[in-house]
Amino acid sequence: MEREAAASRKVIERLPEGQNSWKPHARSMELGYLAALVATMPGWPALMIDRDALDLSDPTFRTRPLGSRAELLAALDEALAQARRSLEKTNEAHLNTNWQLKAGDQVLNEGPRYTMIADGVLSHLAHHRGQLTVYLRLKEASVPAIYGPSADEMH
Prior knowledge:
By secondary structure, this protein is mainly alpha-helical. The protein has one domain (2-52, 62-92, 114-154): dinb family like domain (Four Helix Bundle (Hemerythrin (Met), subunit A)), CATH 1.20.120.450. 54% of the residues lie in helices and 10% in strands. Helix 2 (31-40) runs parallel beside helix 4 (69-89) and helix 2 runs antiparallel to helix 6 (113-138). It is globular and about 50 Å long. It starts with a helix and ends with a helix.
């Protein structure tokens, strides 16, 4: 979690300001929404530990674009703090209990919390952060090294 949050921080720090509504394609997410998603996803383990399910039809669980890079970084810090608190309070037995992702009455995915955190947060975060690095490239912003050097940091 710490490593992934640090990688997300490097990407967020390079986002162009004032470009929240930009998207590379009509079916793509807007930059502001995608950036807010990457900033807040590290907090998802807290809800996966503290709740037995998440219903995507719940209007209180909606990612909303944030106004600035500073707000995104603050959201990332808060999300990581929430995850740390919940992870510190939990135990292996609880992480082996079932957790569900739902849309109304339909169960979309379920499994042991530790698996759902690995797949639904860490892998999912890497995917969306990867999308965000493509947005950086398309906006002529420098792409940071994440799992190894980037073309921008090798020169």
